[in-house]
Amino acid sequence: MGFDKFCSLDSSDPFWDWNRTWYTANPDLTQCFQNTVLVWLPCLYLWMCAPIYLIYLRSHDHGYICMSHLNKAKTAVGLLLWIICWSDVFYSFWERSHGTSVPALVHHVSPTLLGLTMLLATLVIQYERMKGVQSSGVMLIYWLLALLCATVTFRSKIFQALEQPLTVNVWRYATFYIFYALLLISLFLSCLTDQPPLFSQAIKDSNPCPEPGASFLSRITFWWITRMMVTGYKRPLEDKDLWSLNSEDRSQRVVPQLVRRWNTECQKIKRTEQKTVYSPKRVTHTEGKEGQAVEESEILIVKKTQKTKEPSLFWALCLTFGPYFLISCLYKIIQDVLMFVGPEILRLLIGFVNDSSAPSWQGYFYTALLFICTCVQSLILQKYFHVCFVSGMRLRTAIIGAVYRKALVISSAARRTSTVGEIVNLMSVDAQRFMDLITYINMIWSAPLQVVLALYFLWQNLGPSVLAGVAVMVLMVPINAVIAMKTKTYQVAQMKSKDNRIKLMNEMLNGIKVLKLYAWELAFKDKVSEIRESELRVLKKAAYLGAVSTFTWICAPFLVALSTFSVFVLIDERNVLDAEKAFVSLALFNILRFPLNMLPMVISSMVQASVSLKRLRVFLSHEELQEDSVEHKAVAGSTHSISIVDGVFSWSRAEPPALSGLNVCVPEGSLVAVVGHVGSGKSSLLSALLGEMDKLEGSVAVKGSVAYVSQQAWIQNSTLKDNIMFGQERRENWYQRVVEACALQPDLEILPAGDETEIGEKGVNLSGGQKQRVSLARAVYCDRGVYLLDDPLSAVDAHVGKHIFDQVIGPQGLLKDKTRVLVTHGLSYLPQADLILVLVEGQITEMGSYQHLMATQGAFAEFLRTYAAVEHTDNDEPVPKSGTKGMENGSATALAGSPGVSSVSKLSPTAEENKVLGKKAKDPEVGKLMEADKAGTGQVKLSVFWAYLKAIGVLLSCISLLLFLAHHLASLFSNYWLSLWTDDPVVNGTQPNRQMRLGVYGALGLSQGVAVFGYSLSTSIGGILASRCLHQSMLYDVLRSPMSFFERTPSGNLVNRFAKEMDTIDSVIPSIIKMFMGSMFNVMGACVIILMATPLLAIIIPVLGLLYFFVQRFYVASSRQLKRLESVSRSPIYTHFNETLLGTSVIRAFGEQERFIRESDQRVDHNQKAYYPSIVANRWLAVRLEFVGNCIVSFAALFAVIARESLSPGIMGLSISYALQLTASLTWLVRMSSDVETNIVAVERVKEYSDTEKEAEWKHEPSSLPPGWPTDGCIDIRGLGLRYRPDLDLAIHNITININKGEKVSLHITALKPVSVFGGELMREWV
């Protein structure tokens, strides 16, 4: 052989020798194999990886690392290794030249190749440093591979030196031992991590994530999160313990990528439309019939194309997240292949037990191989899951960001088609569906691959009989396809009901004050319950389908096994079912179970995600506002600030124009008043100037930046100061002038924390007038060129209106040099306007100065006559002095907290008291109103589990448990029966009792099926019963809460409870409980079987059990708290989103979109800061638990090898096939137990509101008053006192009024008049 000559000149050293390597009690590899394969293998690895790795490093530059001691040591060791290799080469040449003995060619080639590889390794180490790599996986694997290969040679050389001391070459031995020591040092050094690169994010960040700086070993075992886990075990984790997100996971990096790809997709569709449709530029309208016909046909063609082609959101998602996600596919392929190593080693072990002549080291070798393969499989599987979960997290971030950005630019017509509830569901439920799917999406190709591999090995084992099993599986597919299609239908129906329910809840929470005043709670409760019932009906149908699906797929592996074994033993009497055939097949059937179980789950997840994908695509495809509808560039030489030429505007292209024939030119710095009757289009005119309407014809130009005050003031849930400053920097003098001019000074003096007082959602603790003045102050403070004011004076009293007009809007006000367009009904302001526009039915009928229009006697004069009488009565009211001005429509006091009113006779505070109030308590904490969502701490209380069990029903829970037990007992006994069958003696080449054995085996399988169907049905129905009960009780608790509860609680928290937490209770908890029970019984069953087979394991299992228990408790402490923090940080995302949706026109007018997008991104990132550690903690746990499971498998195999003389092959096969399942079951059990605990938090949060204070019952006992009471309509109030909340002082007290029947009473208090307090609270008391 040529290869033998390559290793030794006389061919005395063969490449391979079975007798020396395998059939011996003391195995060893040949010298030739050691000098070639064991030397070349690591070199080949590095030379193959280096080009790809260097290209990767070039494109992923993390910065520059300065030369550190670690790097110097790595380089020095690399160079020493290089020198050692070259010294071996020179020694070979020296031997050849001196003629002592001519070395074989291998002694020249191998050291040369090794030397070049060591040089390459040293260069890679330096390049890594220059590219900012702190720890290298590629190099660590190289050093590990080199050391493992060298270890075999190391052992061989020691044995050779002991047994054949004369053959030892001292130089080569000495260099090899030095080489081996240096390899050890290199491996140790590559386990350490270098310092961070210069200017890296980690140095700037106050609490950076340790992952980028962690070593490779720490990253693959997820050791880097241990510090957080220890903290979480010692005390409940808090916000400050959470690390910053890695830069590649942040919104600012992820969202723009998806938005860019989506826009590209949309552009592609537009381009294809333009190619297929001849659509010329808009020509001037001709009245002829032909022109109209052309236009109409064009529209029809365009519509037709739109229907056929839609932009692909799926493709945009693939392009954005595909490259990173592809790494998971590589991990999955390796893991799938390694999965089949277990059954093959089991086959070898059973063969080893049957063969008494086999040397015992082979058994230990198989055991070690089994342990190594299972450990590598575990690490790769966890890396795979990590990549999937991170992809899912990024996907959710991107979807939320894209939906938020779209919501800011969506047109008014499109806004009508998508309700707030729907858009919130897109962010919460639909984004979550994608997140759940991406974890298992690889099963779409991986499951068929696993099935094909399993069938291949089964064919090797049982021959054509496997075809019977394949037939059973093929039959299962159409059943499952039908179930998946029906599930999709139900999914669509359920999402529709959910959208309607969330929409109604949003409307109820927005108008809760009205609901309370009219006592409409019960009516709305019934409406919500009705929608909920239709949702539950759909869920119930889905549950029945789910039960059938579970039945078919849990029974599938057993039916496959039964049909295969039946055909195998019945087609030929000589076919004997021995232990090797039965248990290797059983191990393969168990592998088959996972893809067959997962496939329907993945299909249903894909079905759900496809529904969500369509909903998202439809929303993201909505028409946007025309960016070019308003020109903002200044026209050279033009003195006009605003100009509209031939303007025709509509709220939707499908509707007739709301404004038409507009021609307006507004000179710079002028005050324009817009007047007209209700519905004449005044607000629409301002919307047209803001670009909020569809511009059908004409042109609009607005010079300079714009500020806008909407008719209904939009107030943020923030401090008063933040509402006024609106993201601008603080200019103290200007701020004080604005506050004074907008008559807000007296309010600030009364508010408990001055301008640091928190304003509730939608300004609940401000009166209408105060909200409007804050809105105006915001516009004035922003100091823009053009002011569009939509009737800001309508909500304030006449005297305050006059003050604001004089100080802010009028010719002498703060805005005197700005262009102001004022929509108003206040006639007293009109004479001071430079220009008046009169609107009638969407058209400007008159335009000019006050005097000019009065002289014309047109629509303006008619308008004047209509409103003059009202104006006259209001103007009679005296203007108060500055001390009390500006307080109308109720004081801020009552809601925010300080005692503003002492008695009926003394309502107005004096100037001295005002000073005291102003000085008092300007502490921001005093002004806090909203209560943030709080995270619970510690273990989830048993009362929460009990509440859920009670909601299901105790009887149903017990029935489910019994059915679980029955299923697993039948499963255990059927496998034990199989082991007895395989141990049956073979008489004349056949097993005599095979038909009886087969019959009992089949009967046990049938009973399993019945039990599976029963428990699947009972748990699903139980989940629905619990869902109904918990939703009803939460709805009841929330609606019976007093008004103060809604003022303190952000609506986002409540929407989150009704949307996300209820979704968890509806669809997540029942399936998790089912899986938890299944895996718990699996683990218990496996332990029983293993202990029966190898009682020696009784020593090991308790130790591993304790370790397992400790790891699980250690993990759950952190995991549970992270889930709570994630849940709590989710509410602000929706609260902010709701707030944004209500104020989009204001945000756009001020051009603050970017700031709001940043705020939204920040809230999403904060939420992901809690989510990311929780997914890493899951992986941390899985790696450790799978290690425990792998130990159990190895010990089961080891003790079976030790006791092979006394053990029957059937029992051993049963024991190891169960042990192989145990790793997955153990991991799954802990995952499910922690999932049960983390998801049951949803029940805890839903039950949270049952303990808050409640109003009186809605229905009272029959009254003791005489029937027909009251007979007279008189009101008698004696010493009445009212407060808004128990922790506040009385807003009104000591009121005594007697109103006789038929009297008309007017409440009129000029200064601090708490009319709204009086009316609102009294009505509530009365009802």
UniProtKB/TrEMBL annotation:
SUPFAM superfamilies on file: ABC transporter transmembrane region, P-loop containing nucleoside triphosphate hydrolases
Signal sequence extent: none
Disordered: annotated span: 874-906
Annotated ABC transmembrane type-1 domain residues: 326-608, 959-1238
GO biological process, alphabetically ordered: lipid transport
An example molecular function term from Gene Ontology annotations: ATP hydrolysis activity
Cellular component terms per the entry's GO annotation: basolateral plasma membrane
Protein name per its UniProtKB record: Multidrug resistance-associated protein 1
